[in-house]
Amino acid sequence: MVDKYDLVYRSRGYDSWREMVREHFAPTIFEQCPVILHFGDHDPSGIDMTRDLRERIELFAQEYIDDGGFEPDVQRIALTMKQVDEKKPPPNPAKTTDSRFEDYMRKFGHESWELDALEPAYLADLVEQHIVANIDDDDAWAARKALAADLDEATRDYTRKLEAERVASNQRTDALNVLNKVQLVFDQVMMELRKTAPYNTAWSHDKQRKVGPAE
Fold this sequence. Notes:
Elements: H1 2-5, H2 18-25, E1 35-39, H3 44-66, E2 73-78, H4 81-87, E3 92-93, H5 101-108, E4 111-112, H6 120-133, H7 138-196, E5 199-203, E6 208-213
Parallel strand pairs: 1-2
Antiparallel strand pairs: 3-4, 5-6
C-alpha cells in the first residue's frame, strides 16, 4: 500500500512530528494539502492522540502555513464508535488510571477497544478507501503513477544488469581459480617426475632437453 500510493508511514504514538513535517511536508506544502490518516485504539489515550497529533502538526507546520502553505489535514480513520458497532470487537475496561479517563467515560462509557482487534483486510480497505477519496486530481495522479512505473522498471533493469555483471565476474573468478589449481597440480606432478627421472631435465616452452645423468 505504501509503495502503491507513494505514502509516508509512521507509527509513533505520542512523539514529536517536527522531523516529519520538515522532511515530508515542507517540500510540497505550498503545492498540495498534506493529509494524515490516523489510526488508533478507542480508549482514553487513543482518542486523545488524534487531538494531540492535530495540535503538534499544526504547531510544527505553522511557519509554512504563515508563508502561504496549506494547513495539514489530520483525519481519524479508526477506531471509531461506528466501527465498534459495526465490527463488534471484544471490549476491554478503560484504564481508570489514565488522566483522560473522566472525559472519555462521559462520552463513551467504561469500555474501550483495541485497533488490532479488527481484521487486517478490513483496515487495509479503510486505508485505500480514504487514500482514493483524497486524490482530487486524477490526471496528475495518473501521470505520477506512470512516472513511478517507469522509474520502477528502470530500477529493475539496472538491478538485472548488476546481477548479470556479478554472475559474470563470479564465473571469471571461478575459471581463474580452476586454472590456478590446475597449474598447482601440474607443478606438483613435474616436481615428482624430476625426483624419479634418470636424467635431470631442463624444460623450455617448446621442447624437453636432457642435460645429463642425475647425480
